[in-house]
Amino acid sequence: MHLQESGEMYLETIYVLSKEGKSVRAIDVGEYMGYSKPSVSRAMGLLRSGGFITVDGAGTISLTEAGEEIAQKIYDRHTVLTEMLVRLGVDRETAAEDACKIEHDISDTTFEAIRKFAGL
């Protein structure tokens, strides 16, 4: 199943929240992303049926191996692109916003060239 940008963003959010060492629930994802409960609920259902997340009886969301692979890739792209833009003189907030726009569309080849060029 191919994910659209929004699905990648949800996976990245779950990944970031889980790195904080807390259990991740749909309400946490919604608050972090600023999305409504129905939107998050629909997305979690799609991600679960696609095999990217699991949700236990207590509502705790976990990434599957496939979900974590995508989440790590997007998170890596986000951090590298943000840092590169900051090094170019862009303020961190704008750099993070722009990196979020770029990270989903850039090819693997171009991203790796950027990483190599930036020394990241």
What does the average pLDDT come to?
92
What's the level 1 CATH class of the largest domain?
Answer: Mainly Alpha
Shape annotation: elongated
Q: Kindly report the name of the CATH homologous superfamily of the largest domain.
A: Winged helix-like DNA-binding domain superfamily/Winged helix DNA-binding domain
Number of strands: 2
What count of helical segments does DSSP give? 6
Q: Beta-strand percentage?
A: 5-15%
H-E string? HHHEEHHH
CA-based gyration radius: 15 Å
Please state the second-level CATH architecture of the largest domain.
Answer: Orthogonal Bundle
Low-pLDDT ranges = none
Quote the distance from N terminus to C terminus.
30 Å
> What's the CATH topology name of the largest domain?
Arc Repressor Mutant, subunit A
Counting structural domains, the number is 2
Structural class, from secondary structure content? mainly alpha
Largest beta sheet: strand ordering: 1-2
* Percent helix: 55-70%
How many strands, what sense, and barrel or not for the largest sheet?
2 strands, antiparallel
